[in-house]
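Q: Protein A?
A:
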Amino acid sequence: MADPILHKGAAKVARIPIKVEAKPRQRLPEWIRIKAVASPEVKRIKALLRERNLHTVCEEAACPNLGECFGHGTATFMILGDLCTRRCPFCDVGHGTPLPPAADEPAKLAEAVVLMGLNYVVITSVDRDDLRDGGASQFAACIRAVRAASPTTRIECLVPDFRGRLEVALEVLAQDPPDVLNHNLETVPRLYKAVRPGADYAHSLQLLAAFKARVPGVPTKSGIMLGLGEAADEVDQVLQDLRAHGATMLTVGQYLQPSAHHLSVERFAPPAEFEQIGQRATALGFINAACGPLVRSSYHADQQARAVVTA
């Protein structure tokens, strides 16, 4: 079988409703400083992943915390390949027609979890609009494999929206639920057409609420980015909507432009603004809210889950 065609940068965002105007990346403010880390542990983990043909969102999405997380022997695994069926212009993951799910992926992932000695693992995926269940059965297979190989490891799943496949996907996940179910809203509803083409704000909220209704004992989590043109009152409304739909964990971070072909950063929110959002989230009833310029949805996920995941 021929290798699938990968579209990144300009080719990826060529067919979206609102065209991205190519702009150079802005200089980062003093409160956003990313240290490049090329430690032996980082190299070891990258080699381990390559040997098993595993992908991490840390690498594919150009996460600014890669060095720190890999240096501590943690990673967020990205299953179902490295080609996404969506063209979100904020994301650096490539677009294309994915290959069928790999039958040995769950076993390889579980083996990597054991070798890395992880007590907490985050499993995410590209969007798989080509699959009948959106890839939910592969999530469930990975959960079963990790629990069989490492029973004490806690599992968080950061899932896509399963749009058009929600009922069947949630039915599958409810049978083998993770310890935390995460689904990111990413931005405020007014910006969805530009930021999340193919997604729907109300549908994403429904996903969180519907899963919670099926598995009430599993905490739900979501996250958004600042710097895409949102207003303060819109951010507050997102927080209220999340609480109204049962979410109890929150992440809020700064959007960073992966390349000149991606959405530009409208502004860099100062640390004090993130602190204020965190205080507001606590007042609304979030059990844990991680808010900061370099916070990402799976950054320090193990620490964030301690308050809500019981042994």
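Q: Protein B?
A:
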Amino acid sequence: MYRYKDRVSFSRIDYTGRLSVSGVVDAMQDCCMFHSEAVGRSSQELLKINRAWLVNSWHIVFKRRPKMGEEFFASTWAYQFKGVFGCRNLLLESLDSEVLACADSHWFYADVTTGKPEKVAQEEIEAYGTQERYDMPKKSRKVRCPDNLELCQKLTVCQSYLDTNGHMNNGQYIRLATNVLPKDFAVSELRAEYRLAAHLDDEIYIRTAKENDCFYVIITDEQEQPYFLCELIESDQ
């Protein structure tokens, strides 16, 4: 397990004064990257051999989002490697061990020159090791695409959206999705699926739908092929 202490800064809160939904995802993604660096398998090191870990899906359960200035722990560990996939859990916890959010994430190992998945190298498996999967509900990696989508926004991918792989950063999709949520929609659970990588100057179309307590955000190209699909479940509290 890898663990580090973080603190909610003003630039990461939403209008409620708490770490934003996208801020939670960013903290978790940062924890993954720090873990990779700690075991000598950083994204920069992998690029030297034309390899990368790319996220395929997130399932996050929100218990309580920490408030401005609050310190918290972020931790992560791998629990399974199979074929091209690696699976890891993540936790955000208060300093007195209250679980603030938990996540299950699936990643695939890829050749960055072709963009195609590759069988996970033995060196990766040995570097991370595995621990038991966290006790949280298992849900499909796939997010369905509703039929009643409405076009909400059209944007062009700019440089600030990109990561070191030259793709639109995983967290940027989440940020765009939460930006179009109804203001008082309190998120209790999030599922996200990444299908295609958007690149610099790509035109992306943000489409939304509401069904019962679920809000869907689908980011597509002009032909309505999804880059990203997200299901956000509203809290009943």
